[in-house]
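Hey there, shall we discuss this one?
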Amino acid sequence: MPGAPGGMPVIAPMPAARPARIPSPREGADDVVAGTTVDHLTETYRAHYRSLLGLAALLLDDTASCEDVVQEAFIRVHSARKRVRDPEKTLAYLRQTVVNLSRSALRRRILGLKLLSKPMPDMASAEEGAYDQLERDSLIKAMKGLQRRQREVLVLRYFADMTEAQVAETLGLSLGSVKAYGSRGIAALRVAMEAPA
């Protein structure tokens, strides 16, 4: 997978902004009646594209899949924009859709791995001897060992820099569940990181 020095995935630049199109009177009337407007959705997407891509990267660690997931999230929210009654929740809908599509992509990967007759051997990288690479590898390994909900809560809370309330809304959980999954996930990470290799 192409990446930046240090093995991190390269985040592609945000798509270029298209020139504003003047909506027809009929389109404008439909958009105002219910749901978020196309303009608001597009502005939210542009403003948060890199953070949505980063969120997908933490869940998938594959740049091409991350870009596909974020673009598919925009298309799906655009198609269902009339259901987004509160424009302030547009970003939450986009984040939730990115998380759901990432889950689906992971399920497809797992199924694909099960169907493979033989796993391909890992290629050794030049950075494997570096201390920071080893530390990152052990963190990724420890994260993969967590329960799915614990991993999702920790990624959203600490890597996507969301509040516990935002995590709860994005994952459709209660605030208490988010706190419980978070504390159990951190405890499990601590044990896994301190265990001898």
In short: The two ends are 26 Å apart (CA to CA). The CA atoms of residues 7 and 159 lie 17 Å apart.
